[in-house]
Design a protein that fits this description.
The chain has 303 residues and is mainly alpha-helical. Helix content is 53%, strand content 5%. It has a 5-stranded mixed β-sheet, with helices on one face. Helix 6 packs antiparallel against helix 7 (203-215) and helix 6 (171-198) runs parallel beside helix 8. The longest helix is centred in the first third of the chain and has 29 residues, at 27-55. The N and C termini lie far apart (47 Å). The relative contact order is 0.10. Residues 1-64 have low confidence and may be disordered.
Length: 303
């Protein structure tokens, strides 16, 4: 191990500290080594501080709070400097599809950087990474970017060990959860988005909610514990009450009408990682209003 190498500096220091705890008679030698390591790496440390300072205005490292609290980059904006040693998630704060990726990473406690994109005015440098212009898009050091929310979410769970595995190891159980995602998407997600963005009737959504309420036979869609299907459909249910509050009398989310869904939503919000990924009802209502007025604003709450 060469302490002069940036990637080896921290492990080197940790080893020295541990050795100092176990072999106190070598304190003088340990201190000398620590001092030498510090002096030889002072330049590297300064460079890292400067790098973090230059990127903190445009990207946000997830550290146990709501990730991605930075304004959107628009067409014509200069591309921010990418952290070459980190996973980068191109996102938009209120996009439910992008939230899928952030949920997986937050639940697994995998650190990442976020760069938010204005989906109505996409930067040219972002379109070079994803010609479809969609979020989430992820970029890893030395690898081509990946996109499409379900593909990205599954990849992140498989690629990063984190604190837990979300998808089941059994292939049949994994497929069943994907089938459940498709069913809920057709019954709730799709009609909800059509109602918000196309001003379509709430009839399909209300019927779909009733059907999904009956589909819930356990504490979670995945069974006794929160699983992949729960995380993948959650962003749309998370917005139900806010959308209902900001809508006309045509749609009201009546909790008594969907008791299983309401109980499930309470369980989801009881998870600290899920709760840390959400925004306030006021922010969601304000964003929905900006969409309906044709002035979609992903910077709600930051201005």
């Amino acid at each position: 191990m060469d302490p002069r190498e940036p990637g080896h500096f921290k492990p080197f220091i940790c080893c020295l500290i541990l050795r100092s705890l176990n072999f106190r008679r070598e304190e003088t030698i340990i201190f000398s080594l620590l001092q030498a390591a510090f002096l030889s790496n002072i330049k590297i440390l300064i460079q890292q501080v400067l790098f973090n300072s230059s990127t903190s205005r445009s990207a946000f490292r997830m550290v146990g709070q709501i990730p991605g609290e930075s304004k959107d980059f628009k067409a014509g904006s200069e591309m921010p400097k990418i952290n070459e040693n980190a996973l980068t998630v191109y996102s938009m704060r209120f996009c439910p599809y992008a939230e899928r990726a952030r949920l997986v990473l937050n639940v697994k406690h995998v650190p990442y950087d976020v760069i938010n994109i204005d989906l109505k005015s996409k930067p040219e440098w972002f379109l070079k990474r994803n010609p479809l212009g969609k979020v989430p898009t992820i970029e890893e050091p030395g690898k081509r970017p990946l996109f499409e929310s379900l593909i990205v979410a599954e990849y992140l769970d498989d690629q990063y060990k984190g604190d837990k595995k979300i998808l089941p190891a059994d292939h049949h159980e994994r497929a069943l959860q994907k089938v459940m995602i498709e069913l809920v998407t057709q019954k709730v997600n799709t009609p909800l988005m059509a109602m918000v963005y196309k001003n379509e009737s709430a009839d399909k959504l209300l019927k779909g909610l009733e059907e999904v309420d009956q589909m819930l036979t356990g504490d979670f869609f995945a069974g006794k514990t929160m699983g992949f299907v729960d995380l993948m459909v959650w962003p749309w249910f998370e917005r139900l009450e806010s959308i209902a509050e900001g809508s006309s009398e045509a749609f009201k989310f009546e909790e008594s009408r969907y008791p299983k869904i309401k109980a499930w939503m309470d369980r989801m919000l009881a998870d600290p990682d899920v709760k840390a990924t959400t925004y306030s009802k006021d922010d969601f209502v304000a964003f929905s209003k900006s969409v309906k007025e044709g002035k979609q604003n992903g910077n709600i709450g930051l201005e």
